[in-house]
Amino acid sequence: MTQPEPLPLLSLPDSHVDAVELGGPRFQTEPAQVYQELRQRHGSVAPVLLHGGVPAWLVLGYRELLQVTGDAALFSRDSSLWSLWSHIPEDWPLRPLIGEKQESILFTVGEVHRKRADAVNEALFGIDPFALHDRSERVADALIDGFCERGSGDLIAEYARLLPALVLAYFFGFSDREAQEVTHVINDMMDGGETAVRSQAAFYTACRELVAAKREHPGVDATSRLIACSPTGSEEEIVQDLMVMFSAGHQPTAEWIGNTLRLMLTDERFALLLSGGRHSVGWAMNEALWEDTPSQNIAGRWPTHDTVLGGQQVRAGDLLVLSFAAAHTDPQIRPDPAASTQGNNAFLSFGHGVHGCPMTGRESAETIARAGVEALLDRLPDVDLAVPEQDLVWRPSPWMRGLTALPVEFTPAPKTPDEDGSWYSADA
Ligand code: HEM
């Protein structure tokens, strides 16, 4: 593990002098091993350095994560409490992730957060689960139609990374055309490449225009309900919360679909069952959350007082990064890492406590992901990896776990008869 050069003017506290960087190739290739080494060296809370040598604490222990996420008064979600903001350059790439100057629900606290969370829940609660399932299947079919006759495809670029955004956009009230455009910009924004900043602005504009349109002409969509339930009516707050619902809903669900399909295509236990039955889909989805949770590490929480956490002295205003991935292999809860997690829903992938993923979000994610995996296996029953398993590449990110591509091959299959025209076009 490497030690990055510290940012100018930032002197490291004694606790972090030998800390390792949260990043680099090993988080891509063998994250579980890295967490194990950190745990052996530091216990359940480890000093780490973020990009540019910025000190933070990585909470690795399952019990400590419950403690942190369960005590919102001591471990606040208010990013303005971070003691290092004055040292952080304007162009520091993790600024958006840590949440400076964001007015979204993610970084509000206390009573204000409770009211905003109620509005988000109300907006999502109005999505009919049967309609969500039907739409997910329909979008899945349209996407599969895009490559089924070819006999090959990339299940990340052509499927998993499109499905949740297209489904959510529909329920948020975007038109089909707008849904395709917004899906493109959200993926580009999350890729973090050269056009990411432009795409972020385009995503903001799309959400802002939708909110303005729904204020004028409310409909039966989640955006209209979010506006109606907003505790302040502030346009900026509504736009920010819509963006959180969309981005927090799309990306992890897309990775969950991809990671589940990878598991089913590479692990003999599932390969044998692929054509066999749908019950193995639930098993694989559960195991994908335990072993390759999309939400690996999340920033963050900020202690409001000096305190001791997992044996480490942490100071008010320190940055805590929550490692859900590490907690999933904590020997305190999984003494035998090889033992099956089947039927065990105690994973922390969706967080915990008042800032955890809303139940309506979890249920929507599960409906979309399950429909996506099942539709693919139904339509392409002999689907198989087109490359050796060891050639699959994970994204180089310590934050989200997902593949860069999942190339497959299968017997070419016919398109579905489309009852009302081909509404999905891959090159929108
Ligand atoms: C596999 C899919 C998903 C995963 C793994 C996931 C994970 C998470 C996690 C870990 C958090 C907590 C962040 C923290 O503690 O700081 C969170 C928050 C949130 N998620 Fe999800 N999520 C998923 C799907 C969704 C979906 C489909 C939606 C909505 C359509 C959604 C909406 C939200 C919102 C609004 C929050 C903010 C809650 C708050 O701060 O009060 N999520 N999610």
Kindly list the characteristics that best describe this protein.
428 residues, alpha+beta, Uridine Diphospho-n-acetylenolpyruvylglucosamine Reductase, domain 2, Cytochrome p450, 2 domains, three-stranded antiparallel β-sheet, 16 helices, 11 strands, binds protoporphyrin IX containing FE
Mean pLDDT: 92
Number of β-strand runs: 11
Q: Note the gap between the termini.
A: 42 Å
Instruction: Tell me the structural class.
Output: alpha+beta
Strand order of the largest sheet: 1-2-3-9-6-4
| CATH-derived topology of the largest domain | Cytochrome p450
Ligand inventory: protoporphyrin IX containing FE
**Contiguous uncertain segments of 5+ residues:** none
Number of helical elements: 16
In CATH terms, the superfamily of the largest domain is Cytochrome P450
Q: In the CATH classification, which architecture of the largest domain applies?
A: Orthogonal Bundle
Number of domains: 2
Oligomer: single chain
CATH class of the largest domain: Mainly Alpha
Rg value: 22 Å
Which percent range describes the beta-strand content? 5-15%
Organism: Streptomyces luomodiensis
Family: Belongs to the cytochrome P450 family.
Protein name: Cytochrome P450
Overview of this protein structure:
The protein is of the alpha+beta class and 428 residues long. It has two domains: 1-100 and 296-346, 2-Layer Sandwich (Uridine Diphospho-n-acetylenolpyruvylglucosamine Reductase, domain 2); 103-292 and 349-428, Orthogonal Bundle (Cytochrome p450). It has helices at 26-29, 31-42, 62-70, 95-98, 110-125, 129-145, 156-160, 163-172, 176-191, 196-216, 222-229, 235-266, 268-271, 279-291, 324-327, 359-379; strands at residues 20-21, 45-50, 54-59, 75-76, 152-154, 297-303, 307-309, 312-314, 320-323, 384-385, 407-409. The strands form three sheets. A six-stranded mixed sheet has the order 1-2-3-9-6-4. It has a three-stranded antiparallel sheet with strand order 5-11-10. The protein has a two-stranded antiparallel sheet with strand order 7-8. A hairpin with a 2-residue loop joins strand 7 and strand 8. Helix 10 (196-216) crosses helix 12. The longest helix is centred in the middle third of the chain and has 32 residues, at 235-266. The radius of gyration is 22 Å and the shape is globular. The protein starts with 19 loop residues before the first strand and ends in a 19-residue tail after the last strand. The model has no long low-confidence stretch (mean pLDDT 92). The structure holds protoporphyrin IX containing FE. This is Cytochrome P450. It comes from Streptomyces luomodiensis. Belongs to the cytochrome P450 family.
